[in-house]
Structures are given as structure tokens and as C-alpha cells.
Amino acid sequence: MMTKKLNNCLLGLLVLFGCANAQTQGSRGGAGFAALPEPAKNQKVATFAGGCFWALSEGLSELKGVTKVVSGYAGGTTKNPTYEEVCGKETGHAESVQVYYDPSVISYATLAEAFFYAHDPTTVDRQGPDVGDDYRSIAFYRTPDEKKTLEKVIAKVNATHHYSNPIVTQVVPYKVLYPAESYHQGYYCSHPGSFYIQQVSVPKVLKLRKAMYNQLKREFQH
């Protein structure tokens, strides 16, 4: 009984200090928002949503061939949303990341596989203490080939029984990603002592490192 009460208290703390309760800054259209760069000639772009973007951004940025990751909002209908609006559950957007990568170093299939190991793709509208459609799992595709690749990767991961339950990730066409506020970019590294980062984000990043060890940049292979 005491253990159950302790677990409930810890869960409450995680919700209190969760991704949605971070300090919000700025307003859309001001200098407080990140820019969304155009990919270089040797780059391609992929977009994913998998819970709080702090961990997902860090995890995918550690892969060889990934040159930049921008946190943002995608999958909804509201134009130019703010973090507060997305957390209000009325925009339809999910916290997402735009990944810039070199396809000669890392394939889209490998990047997609890493995405499925970087979060729990078997839960609907929830990642740990973060609950709501803004934390849903989505893989956005830009071409029919990317859609086929995503379907193959999902079948592959399901076949490994890495997860007890089947993947429920939405596979939908990419439309637009609105970059998040500047303070969200690189949040994992700039707030290493954060309770939420330590208790929720770090385990996710370590999980990805273990699953995709051979694909990590050298500095993260330890």
C-alpha cells in the first residue's frame, strides 16, 4: 500500500513538473520563436511526434547523419500556435520534431526505426505523465515511398515484440510544422537539472541509445 501511495505521489510530481508545465515565454510572431530553415542540397527532412519534444529532439539529434532537429507543432489545424495554445488541447497539434539529415549517412528507414524506439508508440494520446492528443504518436510522410517505409518499419518493430502491445502511431501525410518557441530548442541540454528531464526525458534518451547504439555519433557511444 505504501509503495502504491509513493508511486502515485511521484506520478503527481511528474505531472506537476511535466512538459506542459514548463515556463512559457514570448508570443507567436515575436523574436521568441525559432526559425524553420530550408534543407541544404545534401539534406532531407523528416517529421515525427512522440510525446514531449524535449527528449525526442535530443535522442534523434544524437544519431549519425542528423545535422539539426527543430522542435515544433504539427498535425493540427490552428495556424502559428503558441505552446500555451497547444497545451490547451484545442489546436489539434502534437509536439513534434523536424529532423534534418544526410541520407548518404542515415536512411529514412533507420531514422524511422529510431523514432519508434525513442518513445512508447503503443499508447494512445499519452507518454508517461503527459496526457492528451498533443502527446500522441505520429509519423508524417512526404512521399508514397516514405509511407511504405513507415509501414514496413512498424511491422518490423511489432515482429520483434520489443513492446508488449502493438504500435498505434498515426501515419499521416505531412502538411506543415510550426517551429516552437526558442527556449524549447535544445531544452534537454540547457536544463540538465530539471526534475522532468531527469525523471522522464533522460530514460527515453538512454533507451534510444541502447536500441540504436551502432547508429549513434561517436561522442554518445559510451
> Which value, in Å, is the CA radius of gyration?
17 Å
User: What is the CATH homologous superfamily assignment?
Assistant: Peptide methionine sulphoxide reductase MsrA
Largest sheet: 6 strands, mixed
Helix content: 25-40%
CATH level-3 fold name: Peptide Methionine Sulfoxide Reductase, Chain A
What is the CA–CA distance across the termini? 39 Å
CATH architecture: 2-Layer Sandwich
What count of domains describes the coordinates? 1
CATH class (first level) name: Alpha Beta
Order of helices and strands: HEHEHEHEEEHEEHH
Provide a count of the helices.
7
State the shape. globular
User: What integer is the average pLDDT?
Assistant: 89
Give a count of the beta strands, DSSP E runs of length 2 or more.
8
Structural class: alpha+beta
